[in-house]
Design a protein that fits this description.
Length: about 230
């Protein structure tokens, strides 16, 4: 089965155009209804969910909350398409759990590039980390690459693609300070514009998830410089 992209929109014409573009690239696109969120998003073949916020950003935020509140769907990457001039919802969507936002009009190549980066999985440059098949271990953490699972003792969390790539980059050199530019290079597609504030939001989300699992904070913020993992 081809990887599926679920598409939530109140504009059927836009959905038809979007689904055709994805089909050319070998991706299936399924129109998502709010009442079907749990059923459709629970499919194992779902690559990402795209939310078209045009005309109803508040409704899109509710759909986002439904997806993130369900353990079976919370790990699925969420992409938001924001109409030009409506950027005020950008941070609200990030805080609600959206993985990435695109301001319309947008080149289809940018969205396709992002989806292809999700298919590629682990970022390059993971040398120096002990591996065992699709799993590698650092400190007391065990990371299962194929599922983006992070385990600590008997606890585990499933990260979104951006948070997972950020963690992998930070784990390359515990104690080293990684600049926001380095983290952008590791976690986002090439030639993709990312605001520094966006990096902060994703690192903050990663920090909270790890702290809930481990019981303490292991990501340190170095003011005006970046972030570092410190096990202490």
């Amino acid at each position: 089965m081809n990887p599926e992209v679920l598409f939530w929109s109140q504009n059927p014409d836009f959905y038809l155009v979007f689904s055709h573009i994805l089909a050319v690239e070998g991706l299936s696109c399924v129109l998502l209804d709010e009442e079907e969120v749990g059923e459709l998003a629970g499919r194992t073949s779902v690559l990402a969910i795209v939310l078209d916020t045009e005309n109803n950003a508040e409704h899109a935020l509710r759909v986002c909350s439904l997806i993130k509140a369900d353990r079976t769907t919370a790990h699925i990457p969420l992409l938001a398409l924001i109409p030009g001039g409506d950027e005020r919802h950008y941070l609200d969507l990030l805080k609600a759990g959206v993985t990435e936002s695109f301001v319309r009009p947008i080149s289809p190549a940018r969205i396709l590039g992002y989806l292809q980066s999700l298919l590629s999985g682990l970022p390059l440059g993971m040398g120096g980390i002990r591996r065992d098949g699709s799993t590698f271990n650092v400190w007391k953490l065990s990371i299962e690459v194929s599922k983006r699972l992070v385990r600590h003792g008997s606890k585990e969390i499933q990260l979104g693609p951006i948070e997972f790539k950020l963690l992998c980059r930070l784990l390359q050199a515990p104690g080293r300070v990684f600049s926001r530019s380095e983290l952008i290079e590791a976690a986002w597609p090439p030639n993709y514009y990312v605001q520094p504030r966006t990096v902060d939001v994703h690192v903050g989300r990663l920090r909270r998830m790890l702290e809930q699992m481990i019981g303490r904070n292991i990501i340190r913020t170095i003011r005006s410089s970046g972030y570092a993992v410190e096990f202490g």
